[in-house]
Amino acid sequence: MATYKEIKGKTVQSLTSDIDNATGEGQIWFNTTDSDYNTIISTGSWATGGNLSTARSALAGCGTEPAGLAVGGYAGADSNATEEYDGSAWTAGGNLNTARYNLVVFGIQTAAVAAAGQSSTAVEEYNGSSWTTVTAIPAATDNGSSCGTLTAGLAFGGYPAKAEAYEYDGTNWTDGGDLNTGRYGVAGAGTQTSGLAMSGIVGPGPTSNTTEAYDGTSWTEDGELNTARYYMSGVGSQAAAIGASGYNHSSVVTNCEIYDGTSYTATTANSTARMKFNTGAGTVSAGLIFGGAEPSASNATEEYSTTTIVDGTWATGGTMNSARLAQGAFGSQTANAIYGGYGPPPSPSAIKSFVEEYNGTAWTEVTNIPTAIYRNAGMGTQTAGLTMPGRTAGNTTETYEYDGTNWTETGDYPTPTSRCCAAGTQTAGLGYSGYNPAGDKTSEYDGSTWTEVNNVGTARYNSTFGGLQTAALFITGGDQTPPTTALTNVEDYDGTNWTETNAINTARKELGSSIQGTPSAFMIQGGTPGTITETYDGTSWTTSTAMPGSKNQQSGGGTLAAALMSGGGPGTGLDTVFEWTGPSQNVKTITD
Question: What pLDDT is recorded for position 345?
């Protein structure tokens, strides 16, 4: 038997902690702290893509997830339509010369072959703009499948339960090895010399769950699908494929299974149940399916992707001593301080000066802030914090420093304001936006005084925030015009200028965030509306695990890896606290 080193090229490492990046996928290591053998595995999921321009069933497709090709099909009549996918939307390509359905297609978006179809032997090649009729396939067939490229393609199976396979070299067709079990409604994946035939129906007999692998000469029966079906879509290669949706002889299903070259494992189901779509494109890490019948013609597109990251999770933290919302905060998940605020709503008359510190388990009341205040923000740590202005009877300019015991008034903010944003530390702070006549001002703090610098791009308030003086985020909020429509805008600050960057997925305001996070590792939560969590990697926002209860006007704390959301309303108690543990590698312990 081969050793792990012979297979992987390395020995099993002994580590005091688990590998925390994707390089650990498939590796095995021994965790000396836990005395476990661990590895990182990936998980897959489907996401909705752009709809086909023309809904149709019995179409075929090929290509990749960012460059797919949809060809022919049936939409009330035989279709000659071709559409090209760019990773987000479909656009029209050149029409087939012969309209048809139940055809097979193989290749890539700019070099593809369309063959056979309903009672047809016609073959056409596509160059990315137009189709050219070429040598016909030896026998008329429909409801078969295919794989490969324009110069090395393979077509196999078909109605009624055909076993024949044909190879294409870019000019001519030759006989390939016959399937062991003739069938139609079969799904394909792989290449001409490493092909895969999955499922199908042995008409007029039973639905098949059999898989056969092709080596360029002959077919060998291999693993069996857990759910027998036909008219499904195949994606990937002989060693790593997906069988998606299909018909199980009684209903259209959403079942999806991953094939590893030996056996099938269930994965995330499709959002849309469908059949009659020979349209799989791409790989198991970046797959694409589209069209089909639900049973009526569909224009739906779904994209499959894999990740070694598992979503973050929420847990309930220690209850605050003083219920409140619209309070300020600074610090981490396990060393946080909150101050001011008001409550309970709707009256803000009970403006608070109370201060509480959190140790990761419980809250302790400490020295009050000198002025009762609400609708303000903070930055820094539990032992070196800095407050922004807020509201008392009106907007204020006062700012305070906190040393973990005492409060000291420091330099006034240049503009009376409230509902503003904060980033940085007690000696290198940043204040921006807010509820004031302009709403676009930015000021930097040097440990004693505030200095106005370049304005934000879009004036707004009730936003969320975080980062450092030289690398800050300004996220969503409401515009300055009543009734303050919630926005999706995001800007980042580089120490000099604000730049518009990728928007969040759900428009909202009055939300919380990981205020100690960075522009490349950040999370936001709740707001109006309420339980949604999104994480940010510096490029895109991803919707993650929803918070257990709705919150707005809560205070934040911590980082993407470990955040804290305290108080706020109205869906949960104003003294409720939730702790966030961020996304992590999907580490699994290996057992016998």
Answer: 59
